[in-house]
Predict the 3D structure of the following.
Amino acid sequence: MLEQLPLYQQAILTLAALVMFTSFALLAQSRVVPMIHVFAWQGLLVAITTGLVAFDSGKHDLYISALLAVLLKALFVPWLLHRLVTRLGIDRDEHGAEHPATVLLIGALLVIFCYYVAEPISELSASVTRNTIAISMAVVLLGMLMLVSRGKAVAQVVGFMSLENGLFFAAVAATHGMPMVVELGIAFDVLVAAVIFGVFFFHIRDSIESLDVDQLNRLSESDE
Amino acid sequence: MSALYLTLLIPLFAGMLLALLGDRRGAAVFNVSASAGGFAASVWLARTVLQQGPLGGEAGQFHIDSFNVYLIALTALVGATTSFFSAAYMAQEQANGRLGPGRMRLYHASYQGFLFTMQLALTTNNLGVLWVALEGATLATVLLVSLYRTPESVEAAWKYFIVCGVGIALALFGTVLLYFAAAQVIPDVENALLWTVLAEHASALQPVVMAIAFVFLLVGYGTKVGLVPMHTWLPDAHSEGPTPMSAVLSGLLLNVALYALVRVKILTDSALAGGTVHDPHLAGYLMMGFGVVSFTVAGLFLHRQRDIKRLFSYSSIEHMGLMTFAFGLGGPLATFGGLLHMTVHSLTKSAIFVAVGHASHIARTQAIDGIRGLIQTQPAVGWGLLIGTVAIAGFPPFGVFTSEFLLLSATMQSYPWLTVPLLAGLGVAFAGLFRHLHPMVYGDRPEGQQAVQASMWPVVLHLVLVLWLGLSIPTFLAEWFDQAAVLITGRGLL
């Protein structure tokens, strides 16, 4: 089966698997700095995939997307996060989930769920697309899982950005990239979001003297 | 087309200028004049569309038809009147020492930036750009929610950012799937996200992919509409941000998100029509379900609120639920009612938030228990709040009554048993609003409570418009609603 695919398609599948692997690595990683490094690797893998798709499909727009991905996802956002955690003095903190084994198990179930949802799509398209849609959906949901399972602001931001990687991967792998104007708009939004997240770290620290967003629980519908 | 460019460029450049120049004397006046200029441009645009029909052509990047033209004018109108209120309100906040010049610069720049994203989302023909604009709206407003830098406001802003960010990310996934489906039937892929092109090819789109895409888009944009259970950000963001922000969030953002949802529903409906894979009304059923749940849950939550802005933000969730239900129900009558409800809710709710802002300045608190005797202290504010709440609760002769009546009639025709929960929900919501409102507006005024400098004419203007829409809908507006109903359901009412 797989051997019959053209070489580049096999390469894309391998990269997709690696992207999903980094998602799981993010879920399992509890220390802040390695977490940011894994996130940067994920961004790089997504960028390489984009370059590969650009080469194969001959769509030159995609080279710009690939370049944007390298600059934004593999360099700028990780660099920004790294600088922020150093300045906030939390680069040695543990930001893990409370029950890492359970979280990983849920993650595995999410992947199965994604393949189940993507099943009807797969009947009408090439086998590569079937896998990449399922995998990118899984990366999105794993990012979401990371968001809900972590109580620290930095880990939540990494989860959020990894979710964004999943979306970008979906756009590139399943549809050979979105129209250029949309790609640029999305990149701009991600850039602004990353900067605002940085601003927020300081606001949160000033208001509760830590980045433990679990402590942000004043507003709720329960009776005080 | 120049009216269209003006509508977009005025808020864009005004926002940049305000960010650049900072909080000088006259920044508030400039904010007001830019918003008023934007409104004038949108009226010009509406006039052009009225005379020449839809603008933008087949494969243009912008598209103005009868569905979005009135929303553009409404957005600009609410933006302009709220900016008048904001000038008075924010001056008071500065005088109270709650905000410095840096924050005021951020506030004004974000205000215009938000208006720009709203107009971009409404005018664009590209569903990808629509997504970018809605995400941009979150980014423009998130720092305003935490403007006061209290722990509560930082928490509200963080929640807003994360919940809406994740929600809107799911909508992007839905958009990618939509593009995936479109790329297989539309030869020129660069145009495959243009709504007009998609609408033309909608019946050829893969129903399976479209159904999955719609679920993602519903959850994603539904988060911004404030549908239960994705609504958690909404009361927090409304209650902790400055009041003019609450007025435009409730009056504009929720409407625009719903607009985005209805646009994709049109595509999904034609893709699923006559198909055997899924029920052709899948999209409608999903929207009806989310709508009824939001409507009911928000109505119940009204009863246990202690903060006046949270109270009215739950009322917004309730009404957005009702509109989502109306569009889900389909059919020209319900759709007409839904379109009218979008208009009157936006006008009424922003008027209420203006009155609420002044009321909380009079009482120096947002706690419902602390606000007493408004009519005695300052009759204009007290009566404004009272009449606004009467209007939003759906009393005749206001426009909200008309649209709810249309919707109930439509429900009676297609699903008679659903009118029972709807009527019960309206009753519960009415009781929830008035049990809190009554002690706030009537009663004796507490010792030492003083009247404040208030600009109540936006409230008067909005409520008069709502009253007018309740008594007689102008012909051109009724025709736009009808054409939009044809666009959405395939059949007209008139």
Summary: Chain B is about 75% helix and 0% strand.
